[in-house]
Structures are given as structure tokens and as C-alpha cells.
């Protein structure tokens, strides 16, 4: 990730493959390398084979990467008019609305040419209710530490 105009790396970001993605990378003999501007994925070849590409991907596969922003002031510097919801996460992919992979001529993973609120997805914790194990109107089991013995 680089700053538009200057091309300088945007500090404070880190990418990591999800556990499922790490398995897929391994299965397809792909290597993930973090870089200052994001990350790169390398593939393996065997120049002596008729088909030199090793670990070929033969069907549409989803490779998920976590993008972590460690700089809490980023949005005040780069998108000052955008109020980011604290529970929002950004979601990026290289798929068109039809589910097909976008053409190489489209060079961005966001909904539009710039990261915006349209790329945010609300993330909410799972909430559930638990009834108390014991109701107040029922006697509780005896939890005293008295010992009983067969030998008296």
C-alpha cells in the first residue's frame, strides 16, 4: 500500500494470510512474503517439466488475508471527513458482483477506485442469553464438604 501521488509506503499496515489461506498457499506451493508496501505471493516452477508450473490452481479459490491497521490516527490523516464505525472492518476482494475474477485492467480491490465507507462491513459479536442453572424458587443441591463413610 502506497500513498497516492508520492508513492511512499503507508506505514502501520500489516497483512497475514488466514489459517485457511495458509493451507491453500501450502497446497498450491505458494509462498507468502510480507513487504513494506503490502505483500507478495510467489509460485514454484519446475523448468524440467512439460508444464513447469507446480501446484496449479485448477478452480476458483478464495485466498483470504487479514489486513491490520496499527496506526489509530490513519483515518484522521487520510480520510478526514469519514466517520468510521468502531465495529466496522473493511472487506476487499478481486471479484466482480457476478462472482467472476475481475479483469487485469481493473487494478483495485475496493468497491471504487479509493477505499471508502462502501468497503466497510459491520462486525458484531455473537450474543446469546443463558438462563441461570438454578432458579431461586428451587433448593440448591447440598454442596457442603461433609464426608460419608461406609465404615462407622
Strands, count: 6
**Largest sheet, strands/sense/barrel:** 2 strands, antiparallel
Strand and helix order: EHEEEHEE
User: How large is the radius of gyration?
Assistant: 26 Å
Structural class: mainly beta
Count the helices. How many?
2
Q: For this entry, what is the oligomeric state of its chains?
A: single chain
Strand content: 15-25%
Task: Determine the N-to-C terminus distance.
Answer: 79 Å
Q: Segments where pLDDT lies below 50 for 5+ residues?
A: 147-152
Let me know the average pLDDT.
75
Net shape: extended
Strand order of the largest sheet: 1-4
Percent helix among the residues?
A: under 10%
Descriptive account of the structure:
The chain has 152 residues and is mainly β. The protein contains two helices and six strands; from the N terminus they run E-H-E-E-E-H-E-E. 9% of the residues lie in helices and 18% in strands. It has a two-stranded antiparallel sheet. Strands 2-3 form a two-stranded antiparallel ribbon. Strands 5-6 form a two-stranded antiparallel sheet.
Write the layout of secondary structure elements.
Elements (H helix, E strand, L loop, with lengths): L12 E5 L1 H9 L2 E6 L2 E6 L21 E5 L4 H5 L9 E3 L29 E3 L30
Antiparallel strand pairs: 1-4, 2-3, 5-6
The gist of it:
By secondary structure, the chain is mostly beta strands.
Provide key terms for this protein.
152 residues, mainly beta, two-stranded antiparallel sheet, 2 helices, 6 strands, 9% helix, extended, disordered C terminus
Amino acid at each position: 500500500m502506497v500513498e497516492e501521488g508520492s508513492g511512499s509506503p503507508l506505514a502501520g499496515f500489516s497483512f497475514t494470510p488466514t489459517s485457511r489461506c495458509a493451507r491453500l498457499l501450502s497446497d498450491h506451493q505458494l509462498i507468502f512474503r510480507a513487504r513494506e508496501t503490502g505483500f507478495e505471493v510467489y509460485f514454484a516452477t519446475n523448468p524440467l517439466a512439460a508444464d513447469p508450473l507446480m501446484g496449479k490452481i485448477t478452480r476458483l479459490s478464495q485466498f483470504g488475508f487479514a489486513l491490520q491497521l496499527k496506526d489509530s490516527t490513519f483515518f484522521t490523516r487520510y480520510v478526514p471527513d469519514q466517520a468510521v464505525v468502531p465495529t466496522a472492518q473493511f472487506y476487499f476482494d478481486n471479484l466482480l458482483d457476478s462472482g467472476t475474477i475481475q479483469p487485469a485492467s481493473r487494478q483495485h480491490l475496493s468497491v471504487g477506485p479509493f477505499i471508502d465507507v462502501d468497503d466497510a462491513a459491520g462486525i458484531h459479536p455473537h450474543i446469546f442469553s443463558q438462563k441461570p442453572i438454578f432458579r431461586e424458587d428451587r433448593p440448591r443441591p447440598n454442596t457442603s464438604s461433609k464426608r460419608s463413610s461406609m465404615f462407622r
